[in-house]
Amino acid sequence: MGDEVLVMDKYDEAIDPQTTPERLEELAQDEDRYIRQCVARHPNAPLDILYQFSSYDSEYVRRAVAQHPDADAIILAQLATDDDREVRRAVAGNTSTSVDTLTQLADDTNTRVRVFVAGNPSTSVDTLTQLADDTNTRVRVFVAGNPNTANALLIKFSRDEDWHARRSVAKNPSTQTDILTLLTGDENEDVARAAKEALTTRSQSTLSWAMSVGC
Question: Does residue 81 sit in helix, strand or coil?
Fold first, then answer.
């Protein structure tokens, strides 16, 4: 009973946002995998712990490192080649992942990995252009919703036969007003509604700005 209480106390420390980096260093040496996993997720986890855990034998711990916003380019590049697809997926979704690593992951054989690359706001225009021709519909839908996607592609997606892609264009903050105006007349109600809502939001934002500057 005493050992179980001790483990729970450590677990509580590992998830407590107030736990110091020094204490996390100590908890990182614990034999319990769940405690280490929590340490790897902790916002105060020191970089040296993330490096240590990036080669840990548990894929759950490595996945936690791959999701960490403070993981640097070297760690994420290493984990981008991990055998576990969910680790690679976590790297693909991390906004701290470098452009080069995201470009590499755009060729991943796993669809979920490519979907997360397509949705990552750090993904380059060139990589998004490549993924726009992906054979998987979900990948293309996420490209259509990425704010970095080129205008020419947004025009193309606004005419896509899949309404999910057209709705993503309507919700994309980078979509130009003329495209949104066309989408308000889309045959699909969800697409038309999303376009109308986007235009209304932009109109209200413009009005608020004009009032703030005394126009």
Answer: coil
CA 59/CA 153 separation, integer angstroms: 36
The helix (run of H) or strand (run of E) holding residue 37 is: helix 33-41
Residue 204's pLDDT band, with cuts at 50, 70 and 90, is low
49: left (phi over 0), alpha (psi -120 to 50) or beta: alpha
| Cα first-last separation, the chain | 70
The string of DSSP letters for 12-47 reads HHHH-TT--HHHHHHHTT-S-HHHHHHHHH-TT--H
Report the sign of the C-alpha dihedral through residues 143, 144, 147, 153, in that order.
positive
From CA 96, how far away is CA 72, in angstroms rounded? Answer: 7
Work out the average pLDDT over 32-58. Answer: 95
Neighbours of 108 (CB within 10 A): 19
187 and 160 in contact (C-beta within 8 Å)? no
Q: What is the Cα–Cα distance from 193 to 139, expressed in whole angstroms?
A: 23
CB 90 within 8 A of CB 69: no
Q: Do the beta carbons of residue 52 and residue 28 sit within 8 Å?
A: yes
Both tokens assigned to 165 = 């892609």
Confidence at 210, pLDDT banded by 50, 70, 90: very low
How far apart (Å, rounded) are the C-alpha atoms in residues 148 and 122?
A: 8
- pTM metric for this prediction: 0.87
